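pipeline/complex-builder :: batch 7 item 3
reading input block
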Amino acid sequence: MPPWDQRQPIYQQLADLLAAQLLDGDPPEGQAMPSVRVLAAQYLLNPLTVNRALQALGDEGLLENRRGLGLYVTAGARERLKAAERRRFLETEWPRLRERLRRLGIGAEQLHWGDAR
Amino acid sequence: MSEITTTAEPLVEARGLSVRYGAKRAVDEVSFTIARGRVVGLLGHNGAGKTTLMRAMVGLARPEGTLRVLGLDPRRDRVALLQSTCYIPDVAILPRWARVDDLITLMSGLHPKFSAERARQLLRRTSVALSDRVRTLSKGMVVQAHLALVAAIDARLMILDEPTLGLDVLSRKAFYEMLVDEWCDGERSVLISTHQVEEIESLLSDVLMLNDGKLVLSTSLEDIDTRFVALSHDAAVAEQMAAAHPLLRYRTGPGPGGSAALFDGVPPAHVQALGRRMRPSLVDLFVALTRKPELDRTQF
């Protein structure tokens, strides 16, 4: 069973988990999301909690309801998520990381930026 | 108005319900309702009255006060009630000599709302074969088989008394997976008693907490998040936290920062400012609301 932490409501944690999967293309854009029942059984969650998480992803424009068919990943969902992640990284993670690099005395030339990938 | 409210009628309604064993009240003046489509956890220490309350709900204990289950009086309409509820008692045993397909035949003959086809379909999820004899099955497999058999009854309410007691973690997970996937459809409800509070918390929509026969909490999990406030804080402000009279103070982990306080209601702003707000966990609430008074001062 996934270790739900106490920092946030469980539905929010599930929404974050599903968003991370969408960013990796699982499921890909234009494809159906697993049903509430499947997700509830998979993560051992109350169906109401799963509903709330899916609702939150819908509110962010990542999922759309196709009448009679269920929830589908919207076109452009990954780009939207990536943009939000970039923003979050630059606004909250990067300042902390930069501060740590500065304190450790690590400069750009030691990070072998060009070697990655 | 009354036509509209009939579909929203609760599956279970108890008002001022008591069950007496001699002079002792095993269940003491409890009032609650269970609506449709809910997953309700019944929590309490040993002897708190969980089993007695469940037995009253299926007509096996004589209650005082008002109790309606599916609109029926469990004592008077016991036969009709048992046809529309699924019940696994804490002492549940399947006959050891029987084969699983014998049990399906038996249930088909006994229970008008039992579907043999549905039972076989549910059993396919498990590693139990129809030709297996109960005595050759592991404890986890027996409980899975039992759940498959009762979930094949076309009913609206399932009552499970300590269903996963003595099972290992994988068997418990498989049990709850089947329960969520095959039973919880937004219409049917289930009442589960257990000691494994942490494990079941995320599955529940509601909780009933019994302490010494009395209902100390009856609420939805959603309301718990708004009513109770947990604040994690550093040891340095422990005194000030204690002065604000929390329900409970506890350690959240090793190290100096690992303390928390649980409040019923939102504490004043100057207290909130001392810590970081967390989601209150059901197990902490359980400890706070059910511990014995004489343990009050030994928590820290």
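note: Chain A touches chain B at residues 1, 4, 6-10, 37-38, 40-49 (CB under 8 Å).
queue -> next item
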